[in-house]
Amino acid sequence: MIQVRHLTKDYQRVKRREGFLGSVRTLFSADYQTTRAVDDISFNIKEGELVGYIGPNGAGKSTSIKMLCGILVPTSGEVLVNGLVPHKNRMENTRQIGAVFGQKTQLWWDVPVIESLKLFRDIYKVPEAQYKQNLTLFNELLDLHEFSSTPVRQLSLGQRLRADMAAALLHNPRLLFLDEPMIGVDVVAKEKLREFIKEIDRDQKVTILLTTHDMTDIEKVCSRIMIIDHGRIVYDGSLEQIRAEYGKQRKLVVEFEEEVPDFSAPHAALVKTEGRKKWFAFNRFETSPSTLIADISSRFPIIDLAVEEPEIEEIVRTIYRGKPELVETGIK
Amino acid sequence: MKIFWSFARQAFQYISVYRFNFFMEFILTLVRMYGIYWVWRILYTQRPGAFGVSMEQMVTYGVMGMVLELFIWSRPQWYMANQVKSGAIDTDLMKPLDFHVHMLARSTGESLIGIGVLAIPALIIAYLFLDVQFPPDMWTALMFVVSIVLGFLVFFHLNFLLGSLAVVALDIRHISWAYFSLVRFLGGQIVPLWLFPPVVAAIAEVLPFKGTYYIPISIYIGRLAGVEAIRALEFQLVWLIVLVLVSRMLWDWAHRRLVVQGG
Prior knowledge:
The complex is a heterodimer.
Chain A: E1 2-15, H1 19-28, E2 31-45, E3 50-54, H2 61-69, E4 76-81, H3 90-95, E5 97-101, H4 113-123, H5 128-142, H6 157-169, E6 175-179, H7 187-204, E7 207-211, H8 215-221, E8 224-229, E9 232-238, H9 239-246, E10 249-256, E11 268-274, E12 277-283, H10 289-299, E13 302-308, H11 312-321, H12 324-330
Parallel strand pairs in A: 3-7, 3-8, 5-6, 6-7
Antiparallel strand pairs in A: 1-2, 1-4, 8-9, 10-12, 10-13, 11-12
Helix pairs in contact in A: 5-6
Chain B: H1 2-17, H2 19-46, H3 55-71, H4 76-86, H5 89-93, H6 99-129, H7 138-169, H8 173-186, H9 198-206, H10 214-221, H11 226-261
Helix pairs in contact in B: 1-2, 1-6, 2-3, 2-6, 3-6, 3-10, 4-7, 7-10, 7-11
């Protein structure tokens, strides 16, 4: 569905000089500086895949998505979306793409949602039967009928995002970009949107690229994640794989009968103490929980125990910080 | 072509949301119509033979200038500047719609509503209360209609060119005010070109601006008739073709700048 080869994008930005005189000089002669937003990335996405595309702010996510949409021309490298070169066949390409940007709406601010949808129908030349069928589907899954006659500016954020989602899917796109589609949405609405995303992926075989900062979204929705940082892909693989590769560290939480002094156990480090509870971090390939527990219980009486698996969020944080040896193994 | 009608429906929705705004716009136009009506009447009682046409013709010219403004109220350049500034231009470019056609559809839709909701009521008031004449014959009326359509298209493309500059300049408010004064003056909205001093008239004669107000209204009052009227329509058409070509080129350049530099 999507093939990306050695994709690179440089921006030219005007370098502003400081101070008043500096800005006056900038007016007449500007210095340009080049920033590399996307640096030699390559990946493939198959039809129907649901990929989490994550990375810190400014990592190059939006830039690469814009290149896939054909509204940015790559500096070098190749992009193919369903066999088309996006920036050369912009109109044809956008016909098969739908997009939701959580930060801005594609709908017309002042008019009722349904009017915007009608305009989308005409712009994308959606046949009447398909339009009706999709509306029924959206009414069912997104409760669109509850607010379809309300102007966009009066919608709650959750409703607006649902309306945007409907607009993006009205023309049955083969590819859907969701750029932080759940930003600022409450827990219930979020759950609903997640279900909806999974459902259209399953039923309509839509290929979805989901950008988010909420790792729960990724865990609940995606089967594969790509992590981008500083314009490079630092990880690409399945969720289980990332857990296996990066999740060597476990934590043992021990609650003692009474407060005990700090101590360290073999192959484990004390990371936190809170009243009678202590947290020990250990590598599961160096030692097993049972030996650790045996060692600790021989020192002090224990009331309660728990082993914590690392949260995906923590793993991602480690990757963002760029531990070199981990990153190396992550590159495909 | 359906898309033009869709945008008209959208514009109607928009007007109904901002009814108060449009009601005020309408009232304001009535005041302007009344103002220009009296200005010409007073000038004619002072110097009856000084303006080259009869008082009835001149009053019709002045009032029609105000009515036409309601027909071409669409301002694609402001939409474009806003979209570029807020970054929402991306969502426009992501639609399978040529941007130039998109803007034209939007403006045409808005103008269709402008005619129905604002211009025709204003025109009826003008006929009933402000001594505005009907065109002398059917042929003139027909040429007038052709001429305002061409005038609308010429005006749209001038606006579109200004909007394309917004991609580079980001803020076009100040250029806009200068530009509107220029269009109103050189377009002959208030004072017809034949009353200009010779040098200014010579400049205004060759520029496209006179295609917006001066040519349609002059045809309407019969000042431009017969061969002269046909020549005037040709003038509008030639400028329209030039402006379409320049608009496409300038937008392509602006678009390339957007896609290469990322706005």
